[in-house]
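Lecture notes, unit on protein representations.

Consider one protein chain, 301 amino acids long.
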Amino acid sequence: MSKRLLLGIVIVLVITNIATFIYWNKSENTIIDSKESGPVINKKKPVASVNGKDIFYEDWMRHLRLNNGESQLKSMIDQELVRQLAKERELEISEKMIQKEISMLTAAQGIMSKEESKRAEKLWREKLIYRYQLQLLLTEDVKIPEDQLQRYYEEYGDQYNFSASMQLSHIIVEDLSTAKKVIRDLEADADFDLLAREYSLDEETRNKGGYLGYIYTNSQFFPEGYEEIALQMDDHSYSKPFSTDEGVAIIFLHRHLPEITFTYEEIKKYMKSEIAMLETNQTLTADPLWKEAEVQWLYEE
């Protein structure tokens, strides 16, 4: 790996990333953050004020450099190094594995909009690919016997799978007439959460806007009859009223996360790297890989 090439890449990364893709508008002295949710910052105006005491952009940048500059730059170098080495050694992470991990992370969240989910999944994807590629690089020379891998799969293979799950909210009302009124309100763009608080008879979820959370479809706690209805729905949509033992229900499907399972061959290299990490007592850091490249950076001793 060329020293000049890696140094050039690091310089480009510093320019484009550490300042969060900042562009100067000379005529207005503004800094435009290209991130979707980023603000437009006027360099000449305070970025914050505390009881009349202003904090200016330069003070903010100085604080970031002093407190986070080295660690952020090291993180950027680590990521670029892992990306290059993984490409050289053709260490691809399967889309199926990434989707499984994203599903697990998603199921641990609360309610997210489509836009929030999209942003989160993009960030998770980058971190997951880096983590798995780093783990494979750190353990590529460690030998694990085939019979040990087979035994590990037989004992722990199910832990790599993801069971189908649905994120639901519901409103339970006494009769179809009330349910139809709720539907009319929903069609008029009323908020499902607020309608649940107003109308739902379910004491356990009413004050949470009818929110049931993520429930595995094979769970005994999955409400009877809900899966059949939800399977016909799109994410972020509500159902027509239907009868249940509790009354007339309207459900809102936030997300449906399908089942993901792996064969032995699909999961083999990931099991091998995990076992190798444990047996060699390694930590998940890119530091050992630095010796495989010529890295120059601002904080060299």
